[in-house]
Amino acid sequence: MVSGGGAVSRRADDKSIIVALGGNLAAGGQGLRQSLGAALELLPGHGLRPTRCSRFWRSAAWPDPSEPAFLNAVALVETALDPAQAMSALHRIEALFGRERSRPNAARILDLDLIAYGRQVCAGDLVLPHPRAAERLFVMGPLAELAPGWTHPVSGKRAADLARDAAVGRDARPLPEEPGESLEGIKRFGR
């Protein structure tokens, strides 16, 4: 997976829109890497343009480690959509992959979460920043890889510090890129 490369700032600014991608069930004969890459490439068609993406990270399923391991990544995106519209777009992409919401934390083909939308803080149907992301290494680790200086809109803590202190998913580790894995689609979308 592409991790930014070139002369890209390692600090996300106050306008950063952060999307987490994950899954632990392969879709349609694809591997998890291919499924997450395909989901990332669908974002622009739904009004969300990825600008940078972390490497894949693997972690045991949580809270039930007997389920298949998860693969996760984080993308920085640009959009003209408001937060509710962005979340709806993410749900539409999940539906294209056959995502079913049976119970919280169930095994799933694709999980797309809106982690932060700039500095906005929202309560209600859509909670921003994501209420549990700061506790999860499989979210904060990939985010710290992209933007270690990003600060949480509520706590004010940096992504690198949140990753270090995360209590959930402590086994999460970045995976090496596989040969030919570069998500050329991100390059096409304006990097």
Care to describe what's here?
25% of the residues lie in helices and 17% in strands. The longest helix is centred in the middle third of the chain and has 14 residues, at 83-96. It is of the alpha+beta class. Helix 3 (137-146) packs antiparallel against helix 4 (159-165). It contains 5 helices and 6 strands, in the order E-H-E-E-E-H-E-H-H-E-H. The chain has a single domain, classed as Alpha-Beta Plaits.
Provide the fold topology.
Elements lengths: L16 E7 L8 H11 L6 E5 L3 E3 L10 E9 L4 H14 L14 E7 L19 H10 L12 H7 L7 E2 L9 H5 L3
Antiparallel strand pairs: 1-4, 1-5, 2-4, 3-4, 3-6
Helix pairs in contact: 3-4
Beta content comes to 15-25%
**Helix and strand element order:** EHEEEHEHHEH
What's the CATH topology label? Answer: Alpha-Beta Plaits
User: What is the overall pLDDT average?
Assistant: 85
Taken together, the total number of domains comes to 1
Helix content: 10-25%
Please identify which CATH superfamily we are dealing with.
Answer: 7,8-Dihydro-6-hydroxymethylpterin-pyrophosphokinase HPPK
End-to-end Cα distance, whole Å, is: 14 Å
Globular, elongated, flat, extended or rod-shaped: what is the shape?
globular
CATH C-level label: Alpha Beta
Number of helical stretches of at least 4 residues: 5
Taking pLDDT < 50 over at least 5 consecutive residues as the criterion, the unreliable ranges are: 1-11, 183-191
How would you sum up the major sheet? 6 strands, antiparallel
Structural class: alpha+beta
* Strand elements, count: 6
Q: What is the name of the CATH architecture?
A: 2-Layer Sandwich
Rg calc: 15 Å
